[in-house]
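Before the break, one more example. Copy the sequence into your notebook; we will annotate it together after we see the structure.
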Amino acid sequence: MHHPTRTLHMRNNLCALTVAVALASGQALADQSTLAALQSAGVALTKAQAQAVKAAEGDALAKAVASIVSAHSTAAAPSHTANIVAAAVAAAPAQAANIIAEAVAAAPAQAVSIVAAGVTVAPAQAAKIVAAGVRAAPSKSAAIVAAGVTAAPSKSAAIVAAGVTAAPSKSADIVAAGVTAAPSKSAAIISAGVAAAPAQAPGIVAASVAAAPDQAIAITGAAASAAPAHAAAIVAAAKMAAAVNTAAAGPTPGNPGNTAARSRNPGNGGGGGSASPN
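Here is what the structure looks like once it is written out:
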């Protein structure tokens, strides 16, 4: 006698088994690809390290790579860590964030080069890679973000937002680092950074104007648009930073008042617009 319900259950079980086998096969291929990539990159592996990478599943792959990073970072050639990470991330981009997090934790002194290597080979994962690096080494957050922006300038806004979200207490330094690394993208960077931490907007603007005074107007306008509730404080912070820059620059030749510097002040000219509290 035919039992429709039993047949349906059997079909569901077969489908689930097929998916499980496919996933396991995919992970196995990823692990084998990672091992092949490391070997092709000339990474010296012990037999145990090679077996660990080949047998790793899921998050275990990142830990296996981190173990190799740790071994090389304490050996005679710590610069090899970036090559190790680049090879691993290129072979398993879906595991990029996990690989970066574990690698930075294993070799925090190499955090900046590790993140730069990861972003270079997997720019589509740039924001996740930078966030993982910042969380693993928050004291190096600004340098990590700068490295990420430099490696993938087209992803600068997303990278900065990810960095700020990962370490909001470092937001001013993070955004300023992004602006310094890609000044032509300062408006987009500021918008993303301020949107990620609007309460930090005045500090973000002050640090960014200090880092890129020629972008003061763009920085101030973008920040005020992203956090209009803080517009007055944003403009005040920008003016103060511009004034400090002016004083530090001193008088220009033939211009004791340093008009060139004053022209960058967002409170003096057409750049303030609706952002001005007046």
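Residues 7-30, 255-264, 268-274 have pLDDT under 50 and may be disordered. The chain has 15 helices and no strands. Try to locate both features in your own notes.
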